[in-house]
Design brief:
mainly alpha
Length: 135
């Protein structure tokens, strides 16, 4: 098999991640419209961008062997290039997962609580985004 065919097969899981990330972004935007957290939207945007950049880098790096054979780069230069690309991609992935964790933690907190000495919301009025039938 050619390197291009092997790379195309290798990116199938990442393409599936793009599809799942796109669905997640759609659901996060819908949840945001109903009062959900914007952190989840940001997390999915970062995940999609990171995955797309990783797919693009995989195709760009197909020609890495010829970079050395042409005499333009040494093996250590090539290693430095791969590290310089991998570190930002990994940092962006970690940031997106951190945003997911923060959105989950933020989503579990009650939104409208009364301060001591103040009354809570009147009966029949729930938290924003959630419908409650009046009593």
């Amino acid at each position: 098999m050619t390197p291009l065919a092997l790379t195309t097969i290798e990116i199938i899981p990442r393409v599936l991640l793009l599809v799942v990330g796109l669905l997640g972004l759609i659901f996060a935007i819908k949840a945001r419209a109903n009062g959900g957290s914007g952190l989840m939207v940001a997390a999915f945007v970062i995940m999609l961008l990171t995955t797309a950049a990783a797919i693009a880098w995989q195709y760009v790096s197909l020609d890495a062997a010829s970079w050395i054979s042409r005499g333009n780069l040494s093996a250590s230069d090539l290693s430095l290039i791969f590290m310089a690309v991998a570190i930002p991609l990994d940092v962006a992935t970690a940031i997106s997962w951190l945003l997911v964790a923060l959105a989950v933690v933020k989503g579990r907190r009650p939104r409208a609580t009364a301060y001591p000495g103040f009354a809570g919301p009147p009966p029949g009025y729930g938290q924003p985004g959630y419908l409650q039938p009046p009593n």
